[in-house]
Design a protein that fits this description.
89 residues; alpha+beta; three-stranded mixed beta sheet; binds zinc ion
Length: 89
């Protein structure tokens, strides 16, 4: 499964979901943020952050947030672009 939709960006979908996970993904926790579910920082190519909001929503929200943030690690843009939510075929 690719986690980024084809044609969204030139460099998008560089790796499969399995390849990204096998390269290593560090899941961090930010206890002080109660507004966002999670995020990535382009300075840290293997790190994603989860918040209390994501954890309170349950296991499927946690899993969904992790997959969404992995798509960003793979090049999916943020903001109003929905590439991180659409699996590539
Ligand atoms: Zn996003």
């Amino acid at each position: 499964m690719r986690v980024v939709r084809a044609g969204v960006q030139d460099a998008a979908a560089r790796y499969s979901f399995t390849e990204i996970v096998n390269m290593g993904v560090y899941v961090n926790y930010e206890a002080g943020n109660h507004r966002d579910w999670g995020w990535t920082d382009p300075s840290y190519l293997h790190d994603i952050v989860l918040t209390p909001l994501a954890l309170r929503m349950g296991r499927w929200a946690i899993a969904g947030t992790i997959v969404h943030e992995i798509a960003h690690l793979n090049g999916a843009p943020g903001g109003n672009d929905h590439a991180a939510e659409v699996p590539r075929r």
